[in-house]
Specification:
With about 350 residues, the chain is an alpha/beta fold. It has helices spanning about 20-30, 65-70, 170-180, 215-230, 250-260, 285-290, 305-320, and strands at about 5, 15, 45-50, 55, 70-75, 80, 85, 100-115, 115-120, 135-140, 145-150, 160-165, 185-195, 205-210, 235-240, 260-270, 280, 300-305, 325-330. The chain is about 20% helix and about 30% strand. The longest helix has 14 residues, at about 215-230. Residues about 335-345 have low confidence and may be disordered. InterPro entries: 2Fe-2S_ferredoxin-like_sf, 2Fe-2S_ferredoxin-type, 2Fe2S_fd_BS, Beta-grasp_dom_sf, Cbr1-like_FAD-bd_dom, FAD-bd_FR_type, FNR_nucleotide-bd, MRET.
Length: about 350
């Protein structure tokens, strides 16, 4: 069954066919709706539904709680249950760098801990990838598959691209990275991608929260902030299971010594009984709220697994955070049983 969607305060309308998302129908009709991920993780396509009802046949995605907190639907995932009236999803213009597909070679491999490897990728000749701090690239695999990984290097340090890759059980690509890949291996990628980047012109103090390899894009943002001379207060919370999982702990420890406006709080969810841990324990978002119970007038950046993002979203908004000042990157880990899903790490 098809439904009619009308854009509020206009005469524009279009038809959404059975099992078609609102965004797909709008793009099919040539309407310039904003979008990015098309998987329900970035929130770019969110728009208010004035009249009617929608459903999410593919299930709830990581960007949906923040959209719903604003009274909006994710048009890339939503399908109509009735005729609809929606607001045109206008958003402030986002800076944009045209993604490119480029070859690269593995320049260096480092083991950071038992299940995280750092790959440095070298683009050919004098080619350099222009990027915003916090964006990601897609590694292009056979059969049209992709694996997405956040860039841990800042824009000014792009001679080599830095990825932090966590081994995923039964993960085809991550198993290849840990078991087979060698220096000078040829790969191909597309990027830069994503709207998760540092908003430099905001006056608000910054809170950052990373889980596991969610530290990677935050590292790029922080190194860019230090390089650019951003003086706003910045507090990083990095959550991990054990002390050994804080695979670059010495780096933010050093930053805290070097930059007066920067604080660092590591949080362990499962500290080993035989290891003396003087720091915070429990959920990383709870540790942040213990220190900042009122999040009004903060910019919050979150990066990590969906469970962490989803646990924090509603609580942060309930503690006064303006959803328009909440930016996040939710990592979906894919194993061989999910060969076509994007991942981020």
């Amino acid at each position: 069954m098809s439904y009619c969607v009308r854009i509020d305060n206009t005469e524009l309308e279009f038809t959404v066919n059975a099992e078609e998302s609102i965004l797909d129908a709008a793009l099919r009709e040539g309407l310039a709706f904003p979008f990015n991920c098309r998987s329900g993780t970035c929130g770019t396509c969110a728009a208010k539904v004035i009249e009617g009802e929608v459903a999410y046949p593919e299930g709830r995605t990581s960007a949906l709680p923040a959209a719903e907190a604003l009274g909006k639907a994710l048009l890339c995932q939503a399908q109509p249950l009735t005729d609809l009236v929606i607001e045109f999803p206008r958003r402030p213009p986002e800076p944009f760098i045209e993604p490119r597909q480029l070859p690269c070679r593995v320049a260096r491999i480092e083991d950071l801990c038992h299940d995280v490897r750092r790959l440095y990728l070298r683009t050919p000749g004098v080619e350099r990838l222009e990027l915003f701090a916090g964006q990601y690239i897609d590694i292009l695999l056979q059969g049209g598959r992709r694996r997405s990984f956040s860039l841990a290097n800042p824009p000014h340090d792009n001679e080599l691209l830095e990825l932090h890759i966590r081994r995923i059980p039964e993960g085809e690509f991550t198993s290849y990275v840990f078991d087979e890949i060698e220096p000078e291996t040829l790969l191909r990628f597309e990027g830069p991608l994503g709207n998760f980047y540092l908003r430099e012109n905001s006056p608000n103090p910054i809170l950052m929260m990373g889980g596991s390899t969610g530290f990677a894009p935050l590292k790029g943002m922080l190194e860019h902030a230090f390089h650019a001379g951003i003086e706003r207060p910045i507090h990083l919370y990095w959550g991990a299971r054990t002390r050994g999982d804080l695979y670059l702990d010495e780096l933010p420890q050093r930053w805290a010594q070097e930059h007066e406006n920067f604080q660092y709080t590591p949080v362990l969810s499962e500290p080993e009984a035989d290891v003396d841990w003087p720091g915070k324990t429990g959920w990383v978002h709870s540790a942040l709220l213990d220190d900042y119970p009122d999040l009004d007038d903060f910019d919050v950046y979150m990066s990590g697994p969906p469970a962490m993002i989803e646990a924090a979203l509603d609580e942060f908004i309930a503690h006064g955070l303006d959803p328009e000042h909440l930016y996040y990157d939710s990592f979906e880990y894919a194993a061989d049983s999910q060969p076509d899903d994007n991942t981020e790490a």
